[in-house]
Design brief:
There is one protein chain. The chain is 50% helix and 11% strand. The chain is an alpha+beta fold. The protein folds into two domains: 140 residues, 60s Ribosomal Protein L30, Chain: A; 277 residues, 2-methylcitrate dehydratase PrpD (Orthogonal Bundle), CATH 1.10.4100. The chain is globular. The chain binds iron/sulfur cluster.
């Protein structure tokens, strides 16, 4: 089993990997899988169930499904073009499946949010139905969006990652990683060797560079964004104003000791405001938690003495190992385990990545990741209004700051510690299983029900 850097760091659009990227990919997979039968289809219906039904409107799941049916892919879709396609479908009642087979598409009839339908396998499920001109079923399929933009047919959930890919280091636990590294390989080396068993080194490096570029561009766009975020909560974008204040303070020689921490927070807020606005982001490991890794990576690139490009690659490769362990042994889906699986995992990934980039030993990297998660255990998912804004945007800032703190503590230690990464992953999984569903991306509990709009 391998969770590749190509899968964990996916380029897409906001606001949610499980509720936007996943549904888009599932819808596309459904229509693309019809092959020649696509020409017979005259009607398609998508029923969003479970958490997708509860928070799908705020997470733009309906828009995502439409785009997927039209054949769009998260990494290629232009956010502005996407909005135009949605508006055209609403106005004309027509949609070209895979961009070729134009059919009548009634948003109210063909895109249904069903809050009562069963989701026996995963809380993020979509039921698709394609009918021919006689009303006969051409295809009936159920797909699940299992977190971080990963998708699976409902009857294959849990088996989708158990492919037969041969890699030199098939690790499944932190313990495996440490044992494999005992021969002198770093965790980043181990992940690189696995990636290079699948594709040439140049392709791996190009992806790492592209991911870095998109993350940094996202921060920069976020730092320039103004106005209110979409969705009706009237949440004002504040990254630009906060950055301006910090810059002014520095020219007045009024720099506070919290300056670095403030910049890290602002970088994360910038990304998550872009995400909430439906802009281009990298899942890391999800869209809701997309600000943590870029923010800490920007900190490494601009504030850590001796940073270099090799360190950036090591950061992302080591973070992939950590995120992969959580995906394999627990979950990276807020709908399954709460926000500990999103911002918590992102913080653990960033902590391990930063420790690796700064030359930490494998034990220190493992320790940093463990600390990063330990202090997110039990964190619920309770997005106000079903939007990825409150508490998500600010929460990423805290995840980033905690990641830097975790890496720093680990790097000042010798790698020896009491709770292992594997133990904290198991604890996160168990805590998520015990968490009531109202705290798992349904907006039925927590801040989501105690927020009063003024
Ligand atoms: S609270 Fe956390 S898990 Fe839930 S939508 Fe926001 S970022 Fe995602």
């Amino acid at each position: 089993m391998l969770v590749s850097v190509f899968e964990l760091f996916k380029i897409g659009i906001g606001p949610s990997s499980s509720h936007t990227t996943g549904p888009m990919r599932a819808a596309r997979a459904f229509v693309a899988g019809l092959g020649p039968r696509l020409a017979d289809v005259r009607q398609v219906r998508a029923v969003l169930l479970g958490s997708l039904a509860w928070t799908g409107h705020g997470h733009a799941s309906d828009k995502a499904v439409l785009l997927g049916l039209a054949g769009e892919q998260p990494d290629g879709v232009d956010p502005d073009e996407a909005d135009r396609l949605i508006e055209a479908t609403r106005a004309t009642g027509r949609l070209a499946l895979m961009g070729t087979n134009e059919i009548a598409f009634d948003m109210a009839r063909d895109l249904v949010f069903d809050r009562t339908g069963a989701t026996p396998v995963h809380p993020n499920t979509i039921a698709f139905l394609a009918l021919d001109a006689d009303g006969q079923a051409v295809a009936v399929e159920r797909w699940c969006s299992v977190g971080g933009g990963f998708i699976s047919r409902e009857n294959e959930v849990g088996r989708e990652a158990a492919g037969s890919v041969e890699v030199p280091f098939p690790f499944r636990s932190g313990r495996d990683l440490l044992a494999m590294g005992a021969a002198g390989l770093s965790i980043a080396d181990i992940v690189r060797a696995n990636e290079e068993a699948l594709r040439p080194r140049a392709e791996v490096d190009a992806h790492l560079d592209r991911v870095t570029e998109v993350m940094m561009a996202c921060i920069d766009r976020g730092l320039a964004g103004e106005g209110c975020l979409p969705g009706g909560l009237k949440v004002r974008r504040r990254a630009a104003a906060l950055a301006e204040k910090l810059r002014k303070d520095s020219t007045r020689n009024a720099t506070m000791p919290t300056g670095t921490m403030d910049w890290v927070s602002i970088f994360a807020i910038a990304v998550n405001e872009e995400n909430a606005a439906g802009g281009r982001v990298v899942t890391a490991p999800t869209n809701g938690a997309a600000g943590v890794v870029p923010s800490v990576l920007r900190y490494y690139r601009t504030m850590v003495p001796g940073c270099n490009d090799a360190g950036v690659h090591d950061f992302l490769l080591a973070a992939t190992a950590i995120g992969g362990l959580f995906k394999m042994n627990a979950s990276i889906s807020g709908a399954e385990v709460g926000c500990q699986g999103e911002v918590g995992v992102a913080s653990a990934m960033a902590a391990g990545g930063l420790a690796a980039a700064m030359g930490g030993s494998n034990e220190q990297v493992e320790n940093a990741a463990e600390i990063g998660m330990e202090h997110h255990l039990g964190m619920t998912c309770d997005p106000v209004g079903g939007l990825v804004q409150i508490p998500c945007i600010e929460r990423n800032a805290f995840g980033a700051v905690k990641a830097i703190n975790a890496a720093s503590l680990a790097l000042r230690g010798d790698g020896q510690h009491h709770i292992s990464l594997d133990q904290v992953i198991a604890t996160m999984r168990q805590t998520g299983a015990d968490m009531q569903s109202k705290y798992k991306e349904t907006s039925q509990g927590g801040l989501a029900v105690n927020f009063t709009e003024c």
